[in-house]
Amino acid sequence: MKKFISFVFGIVCAAVIFFCIYLFAEIGVQRFLFHPTPVPIGSTSTAKTTTDQTDGFVTGRFFYDQRGDLTPKAPSNGAYNPRIFGDQRFSTTFDGKSRVWRGFGKRSDTPKPAILLLHGAKRTGVSMLDMWQGVSRLNDVVLIAPDSFGASWSREYDTEEFFAHVLEEADEKYGIDPDRIYLFGHSAGAIHAQEIANGGTLKWAGVGAHAGTPYWRNFTPRTDAAPVQIFLGSRDHNFPMGQALASAQKLAENGHDVYFTEIPNHTHWYYIIGHKISEETWKFFQTHTGD
């Protein structure tokens, strides 16, 4: 009996050791081996660009900096309710399912730039319109904010075909410039935005993300990759900095120019800093027109 117990105990110990090794391989390697050399605040680190003579593929550039001026004050509490006026709610049907998207902006005869906004988990598009309405009013930008099919974004239901469907409807209602369509997401929306931008076929003039780290092994090489701006707080409890930097560097290696901004002492909480992030992202978008 004692031999049997010892045998079972040995198997359990071996399983635990194997699991720990697996975790290190999947997480620890990302966090430690791919973590770049720290860069002083205000400076920029740029990765080298290489060309594959076989197919003309060019890896993107990787820029890293820290922005202490973006660090927000700590929120007094975790309460947040969107405050948005002038938005429109639209119902549509895609793939046999009823869906909802919201728009913000004015219709005009001149096509305008548009931003597709992807909300965080358990939120709706209203939260994104709230954070971006100032940019829209000041710059005459159309905002398009669909709701995810479930509590968060799904590869099965929230496909780029669905986004193309929403963009087509938005064009009919607002009039948008096909060469100036941008994509931005927060948290789960940030992950989905980067994966859609890398793995899909839609044309994005630029992509922005706040607090969301995709699994870098899902990336594929792109010859027409959109530039990506990523913001992440140094105290984000959901997305460790090492893993985020590893993912961003891999995104650059797959063709995207990636601009990674670390915000010191910033947490995952988006809604106290969202308006600033929107303004900074819009500045980034303005330098990229999809040409």
UniProtKB/TrEMBL annotation:
SUPFAM superfamilies: alpha/beta-Hydrolases (SSF53474). InterPro entries: AB_hydrolase_fold, Plant_Biomass_Hydrol_Est. Keywords: Hydrolase, Membrane, Signal, Transmembrane, Transmembrane helix. The chain crosses the membrane at residues 7-25. PANTHER family: FERULOYL ESTERASE, UNNAMED PRODUCT-RELATED. This is Uncharacterized protein.
